[in-house]
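Table S2 (text version). Query chain:
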Amino acid sequence: MRQAEVLYKNNLAGLLTQLDNGSFVFRYHDTWFNDSSKPSISLTLPKNKQQYESDFLFPFFYNMLPEGSNKQLVCFEFRIDASDNFGLLLTTAKFDTIGAIKIKKVETK
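Corresponding structure-token output:
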């Protein structure tokens, strides 16, 4: 299992988890979900549900990934399997992204 905090404008909005079977769960943080002034992170992940499940990486997060030669370069430099979309997301979306969302890996102990 791998997890990442989803930050909206540097504030914790939720948790993205890849389960051992390869499926994904996105869950809004309790305080974010219960605060009506906080927006949804995406139109495809509205705040009418607190938890979403998917067999593949949610399209919102998948669209944050590099493509083409940029993807090849990142995979080569960081030794990431090209089919490891979650690993690629953890590597590329932690600092500078287009938009308000950043992804920060949760370190396991």
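Notes on Table S2: The CA atoms of residues 65 and 89 lie 6 Å apart. The chain has one domain: 2-105.
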